[in-house]
Amino acid sequence: MKKIFKDSFENWIFDLDNTIYDIKVGLFVKISKRITEYIMTTLSFTREEANAVRSNMYKKYGLTLTGLMSEYRIDPDDYLDYIHNVRHPELKYDDQLKLKLRNLSGRKFIYTNASQDHAKNILSVMGIEAEFEKILDIKATQYVPKPDPKSYGIMLESFGISKNQIENSIFIEDTAKNLRPAKLLGLKTVWMENERNLEDYKENSEYVDLIYSDLKSFLNDITY
Ligand SMILES: [Mg+2]
User: Fold this and answer.
1) How far apart are the CA of 211 and the centre of ligand 1, in A?
2) How confident is the model over 166-182, as pLDDT tens digits?
3) What CA–CA distance (Å, rounded) separates 95 from 218?
């Protein structure tokens, strides 16, 4: 792909967790712990059982929450409030990041399988909440998660991205399988490289246009 300029795209769509902040920050590990705890407490499972359920639901539905809703009737709001109730002193106000985002031409969005409250928390702590026009969360997609293709249809509609604008849109994500439907629709795709999703990347590498180690290195590579 050619060099990216600040006005190369009309629409810049960013995933939240492990994309807006670096996976190495370790915040997601805390959320992940609480997912297991929630399953243990709510469904009276041992840690081992909870981890097995979790992994099965993730594989089968693409998002643990979706599986827990379909097969275990858990309440999504209760679940989302619980798992995102983490402290994040690791995240810092980031003036540089704010400026880089602000200087991108075009519209900027957050597209996440997490909750709106969680996204707002993260973005406001980092000082970048105002840089995004809209946050699309899992509730707004009617709990249809990435990588279900239906979720991307809802996303395009929600962000008001018309068919002829798709080519001028770019999607940045750490979970490579979530880039597949975007690429098939015609968006440009960027994978935030990480160990955790390496296997998943290998299976989906044909749907990845660009790879960067983190958001800052991606933004630093853009010609402003
Ligand atoms: Mg993510």
Assistant:
1) 15
2) 999 999 999 999 999 99
3) 16
